[in-house]
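Can anyone check this?
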Amino acid sequence: MNVLGIETSCDECAASVVEDGKKILSNVVASQVEIHKPFYGVVPEIASRKHIEWIIPVVKDAITKAGIRLKDIHGIAVTSRPGLIGSLLVGVSFAKGLAFSLSIPFTGVDHILAHLYAPHLEHDITYPYIGLIVSGGHTIIAKVTSVCSFTVLGTTIDDACGEAFDKVAKYYDLGYPGGVVIDWLAQKGNPLAFRFPKPSLHKGDHPYDVSYSGLKTAVVNQLDLFWNKKDGKNPENIAASFQKTAIDIIADRVVMAVRDTGIRKVVAGGGVSANSYLRKRLNEEKGMTAIFPSVQLCTDNAAMIAGLGFHFFAAGEKSSYDLNAEARVPLFRRVYP
């Protein structure tokens, strides 16, 4: 079964053809990074307008590179939530129109679930596992029991991990996207030049929750308080010290979840899962196995949408033409494992 995936949740305009939920026949991503770089972040109105301009050529390119024709597509999967509402509507509307014209089913896909599915495209992964979704918009630790079934164990109470990276990079004029430039600078700096504080959250009912607003404030407004007064206060040392603390915050919670649940397998997805220190930190943890997607599947892409969509179609599920885009997803109830 050939599934065409369409992803327009933020600033990447992407299309992909995946066979039987596993074999990637094509994976085309048109990035808007250079367009949004002057603003140090995505401008929603610009993003949606670019999707309108790019979606037809991107889909055509994906079909051509897959070596198939339109009549060889058996279903269309499209990101319908969460994301920028204007961007989402472009993809959802296009998917509906193309599915109708080809008389084939289409299905809306949750972007968060798709990030969790991305590693499955390259690895044979069995359930259950601890899922880690880290991106600019989401920081979630979950117990995953099937392709579309998971229980949120912890999430951020304020900023997402990737959001903190972007805001620190913007304040110090390091470059955009923040996650990429900080990871690059950090490899040249001393992670102990600044000992930034980790959040002190009351465990209560949600021991796996994280917080990044305090760390962001410390890095931006209280730098001297945490400086070791020996190493230079240069961008490399700031980046290295910030990255170590930011990643340790989430990694500590993941290790705790592994210990408490007894589930020794961790599967990561989302843009921040490409971070070199996160990969090093989790891969070095004893008593557990960490699985990451390749870098090109960490960021937003349509292969993960098509791959997950295949499982919906295989289960006989499809969306109706009244499907609407949703900017947010419901807050899943977090419970003890």
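Reply from J.R.: I decoded it. The longest strand covers residues 23-30.
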